[in-house]
Amino acid sequence: MIRPIVFYPQPVLRKVASPVNEITEEVRTLAEDMVETMYDANGVGLAAPQVGVSLQLAIVDVSHDPECISYLRVNGEDASLEEICPLTFINPELELLGAKDTDVEGCLSFPDLRGDITRPFEVKATVGTLEGETLVIETDGLFARAIQHETDHLFGKLFIDRMSSARKLAIRRQLKEMQQQFG
Ligand code: ZN
């Protein structure tokens, strides 16, 4: 079932989400709905707070572009994006690695807004799965960026927080309009 996406400045987007302690039927349904919602909105990532649920659960799928990474290891073994996406992950812990990299990002909670965001190029993510496993995912490029963007959501952080002050100034009016429309 497609769920409505929550737009900025709804307060749930600013909350630190609760860890998922138990994989209940409700959590599974939430994850299925989120995958469907993300594809429907043509996104590459979606975090539970973006559908109004303050839980540490997120989805990423960048498998449309196999060239967007230069490596992927899952629990130490080489893997492909096709095998792992859509990745549904809970309670992530990230180790940020590599040089800083700047690329344009969007966010489903900010329709029509894009901006250059600088982040570490590589990540080592330790995440839980719906099967109760722990995965250690090492990767770079767009996959690393998307995992960081979605993990930010789980801690109440939004991509506008990471924009340059010049870009923030430039989008001030757009944010104000969103505050009036969705606040
Ligand atoms: Zn987002």
A few lines on this structure:
The chain is of the alpha+beta class.
Describe the protein's architecture and organization.
By secondary structure, this protein is α+β, with helices and mostly antiparallel strands. It has a single domain (11-182), classed as Peptide Deformylase. It is 28% helix and 30% strand. The protein has helices spanning 25-40, 81-84, 141-154, 165-170, 172-182, and strands spanning 45-47, 57-60, 72-74, 77-78, 87-106, 114-128, 134-140. The protein has a 7-stranded antiparallel β-sheet with strand order 1-2-5-6-7-3-4, with helices on both faces. Strand 5 and strand 6 (114-128) form a beta hairpin. The protein starts with 24 loop residues before the first helix and ends with a helix. Residues 107-109, 149, 153 line the site of zinc ion.
List the helices and strands and how they pair.
Layout: H1 25-40, E1 45-47, E2 57-60, E3 72-74, E4 77-78, H2 81-84, E5 87-106, E6 114-128, E7 134-140, H3 141-154, H4 165-170, H5 172-182
Antiparallel strand pairs: 1-2, 2-5, 3-4, 3-7, 5-6, 6-7
Zinc ion binds at residues 107-109, 149, 153.
